[in-house]
Fold this sequence. Notes:
single chain, 404 residues, alpha/beta, 18% strand
Amino acid sequence: MARDKAPSLLLLPSPPDPASRASLSAAYKPALTAALSHLKDASAAQTLIVAVACPILKGSGLRHKTLSWPHTQHLLAGLYAIISVVCANLDIPSYVDAGAHSVDTRVVLIDHERSRQYGQDFRAAIESNNTAIVDLATFASVYHPWKYIFNTDSEIAHEVQSLYLKMAEKHQKLLQDQLITVKGGIALNVPSTQSTTSSPPTSLHKNVCLGGTFDHLHAGHKLLLTAGAYLLDIPESGSANTCVYVIGITGDELLKNKKNADVLQPWIDRARTVARFLSSILELASQGWAGASAPTLQEGDGQLTTTLRGGAITIQCVRIHDAFGPTITQEDLDCLVVSAETRSGGDAVNHERSKLGWNSLEIFEVDVLDAKEISDVSTTTQDFSSKISSTSIRQQIAQATHQK
C-alpha cells in the first residue's frame, strides 16, 4: 500500500476518570482537532484511526478476559461525540466514502496497562483473546502501515508511543515527518468509589444482533457497530466454533419515501460497507491492511455474509422488511443492541419473542451522540446535529449534485 493511501493513527493515552463527556473533551479535543486539521485539506479521502490505549480487559489468562461494556461503550460514545463536534466545526465530512477533503474517523480501544513489563527480547506478535479488543502488541502487529502517526505532548502519551514504536518497527519503517506531535488536553483523575472503571464485568455473547438503515455510514453507525462487536465472545481461530454478529439492515422498499431517497445507497452497498467497516476493526492479519486480502463477501438474496479471524467471527447482514427483522426469525439470538433513541424497540422485540415461546434477548443500550453534553460547544450544537444523521448527509449530497 502506497503511503498516500494508508490511514493515519492518533494514539491517545488513558482517559480521565470519571470519563464524563466534558472531561473527555478537555482531554482529547485538542489532539483530535489538530490531527483532523492536518488531514482535511488532502485532495483524496483520508482515514484516521483513533486508538485509546488504556486498561479495558480484566481476568487471568489469554482466553478468559472480561470487560465492563457500559464503561466501554460510554468511552466510545464520548469519543465519537467529540469527533463529530470537531468535524462540524472544521466542516469535515467524516462518513465512509465521503470523497475529497473528508476524514473517515474510526475509534478502537486497545487494552494496555501502564505497569505491564516487557522483556528486552520482546517481539510483537498476534495473540487474540476472547474479545474484540486486542492488546498493544497485537495492535502493533495488525494495524499497519500508517501515513502519519499523531501523538500528544504528554509524558504518559510519549511513554505509550515509545513502547508502541518499539513493537511496530518490524512492520513499518517510519520517516521522521510521519511522526507528528500534537497538543494534548487536560486530564484529571479523581479517585472515587463510583469510578466507571470499577464496574462489574459484562457477560459476553456468542450471538449479537442489532439493526439500522446504515445509509452513508457515519459516526452514530460506527459507534453502534463497534459497541456491539465488543459484546462478542470470540472463540479461538481455527476452532469449529464461531460467534455470529447479525446486522439487520433496512430494505430499500421501506426507504423509498425517505427525504432525498434518490441518493440513498442501495441495500447491497450499505451491507458491503458495514461488513468492510467491521472487518477493519475486527480482523487480525499479520500482513496488515497492505498485504491482507479484502474480506470475502458471500452475497445472496437479502443476505451478505463474511467470516473473520479464521472463521472465529461470522458477520451476517440481513435485509429487514419490518421493525423486528431477524429477532423474530432466528430463535438462537442472545442479545440485542439498541440506541437510547430506540430503546422501546427492544421491549417490542421481546414481547414478540415471548409470543413465539422464545427466550427474551438481553438488551444493551448505547449512548446517543449529543453535543449539548460537551461543555464548550454550545455555539456548534446546530452544526453538529445537521451533519450527524443520514438524512442530513443525503440532503448535502443532493444539494451538491444539483449545483453541478
